[in-house]
Amino acid sequence: MDKTDIIFDLAKILGCEARKDEPLSRHTTFKIGGTADAYIKVTTLSSLSAILKECEESDIDYLILGNGSNVLVSDDGYRGVVIRLDGDFRKISLVDDTTIYCGAGATLAALSKFALKCGLTGLEFAWGIPGTVGGAVFMNAGAYGGEMKDVVYSVSHMDKNGAMGRIEKDDLAFGYRTSVYRQNKYIITGVTLRMSHGAPKDIRAKMDDYLGRRTDKQPLEYPSAGSVFKRPEGAFAGALIEQCGLKGKSHGGAQVSEKHAGFIINTGRATAHDVKSLIREVQTEVADKTGYTLECELIIL
Ligand SMILES: Cc1cc2nc3c(=O)[nH]c(=O)nc-3n(C[C@H](O)[C@H](O)[C@H](O)COP(=O)(O)OP(=O)(O)OC[C@H]3O[C@@H](n4cnc5c(N)ncnc54)[C@H](O)[C@@H]3O)c2cc1C
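That is the input. Now the predicted structure with flavin-adenine dinucleotide docked in place:
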């Protein structure tokens, strides 16, 4: 019996959807990635706790995946259990007139729409970022001058032993595309957000404006993981890449987008190997020709 079969069987007993040898290309926006030994959609806190405890006791690795919109999964896949938060983890509720509680498995799109419906402003920037709320807190996702740190008040999580905890705003160590969760490896289960009242028509107008800008500038017709590189101090990654004549450069099925040089797109059959070698070439060329170091924003698993 394979070690991960223990988790697979437990997931079935707990009523969670579970699949063996699941291609992770189905669960990443890049549409790249080999198979995970087990892929489980966990729907309740008690199931999550039971699965994490069993992973710990049986020494099985696990990985939490949100919408897979900021990751590059290896062509060899993942030896262990991939966990996706579903069911209860997608619930969103209004706590008081300016406070929202959102499960970490909900999409940013669902959360932004909920805030609009409640007449709450502060999340317009998130409309169009194709991630989950858990992934967005982990990354401190941001755009158009807004970031998760501006609206997050506290975060609930579970540790590897299945115990719950909470971290308040001041201790979340938010920075440019980072948070305390990049170090502690806890699973974010839910987020409390404090927002301000706003006129729904103004909120809607901002959301439309931001989405329009994305559609104009980003190659949304191709699979990708968004901006591959962090913005270096004093410059823009896309502009530097373009300046080095790398727009359209490809390795196998991976290509520096012609529309937005900060994106690498999957033109059809890209492998993680193609993307990684293209990243290396871009980094080397940009460093040689401009002196700037491009650091990956994308998480390479
Ligand atoms: C077209 C496109 C446009 C994008 N535009 C932007 C943008 O404007 N701004 C921006 O910041 N990003 C952008 N991104 C990147 C991405 O959407 C964000 O970083 C998003 O927040 C990632 O969320 P996710 O759920 O997809 O996380 P994933 O990619 O699934 O995971 C990212 C990391 O978070 C961890 N993680 C996920 N969920 C949890 C959890 N519940 N608990 C603990 N760890 C967790 C994962 O293990 C992984 O290490 C874009 C991506 C695409 C494809």
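Residues 29, 63-71, 85, 104, 129-132, 134-136, 138-139, 141-143, 181, 187-188, 218, 220, 224-226, 299 surround flavin-adenine dinucleotide (CB under 6 Å).
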